[in-house]
Amino acid sequence: MNKYLTEIRWGIIFTAVMLLWMWGEQLAGLHGRHIAQHATYTNLFAIPAILIYVLALRQKKQRDYKGNMDWKQGMRAGLLITLVVVLLSPLAQWLTHKVITPEYFLNVQAYAVSQNMMTAEQAAEYFSLGNYILQSMIGAAIMGILTSVIVAFFLRTKSQVAG
User: Fold this and answer.
1) 43 near 35, Cβ under 8 Å?
2) Are the C-beta atoms of residues 103 and 32 closer than 8 Å to each other?
3) What is the largest CA-CA distance in the chain?
4) Of 8, 162, 161, 159, nearest in space to 77 by CA
């Protein structure tokens, strides 16, 4: 278990940063009066998300692999971080929608209906805690895998070829 401590720690850090981001969105009005801009600005979370993976894999490389990490080791670490994030996603969604911004679903449903994007029934089904938990788990898995592949590639130790 100790050999996975770095990945567990960074998975928890990722989830905490995501919750802070949700709180920031709520404070900025993106879950209320500026809900029309929510879909655009929420995508900016990709910046801290990628940064967290970079910092996590850099730390893994330096602390656990003594500065020498190949792509597979980086990938494995990234996938373990992703697993932690996926497992914490239901709790994070519950905290987001029950504690941080309990009015979000009603606001986004009303917006979708007012813009003729969906019927009231479709909006209620789509913008619901159960659906968001499922989406967050799938999204965390897909984005975590992609981010792990890319970050591990750039942080791997390049082979020294004698010339």
Assistant:
1) no
2) yes
3) 68
4) 8
Q: Is the pTM of this model over 0.90?
A: yes
Encoding tokens for residue 115? 């813009």
Q: Provide the token pair at 6.
A: 């770095």
Report the interhelical angle of 129-155 vs 71-95 (nearest 10°). 160
Please list the pLDDT of the chain residue by residue as tens digits (163 residues).
Answer: 688 999 999 999 999 999 999 999 999 999 999 999 999 999 999 999 999 999 999 999 999 999 999 999 999 999 999 999 999 999 999 999 999 999 999 999 999 999 999 999 999 999 999 999 999 999 999 999 999 999 999 999 987 444 4
- DSSP 8-class letter at 127: S
Amino acid at 143: M
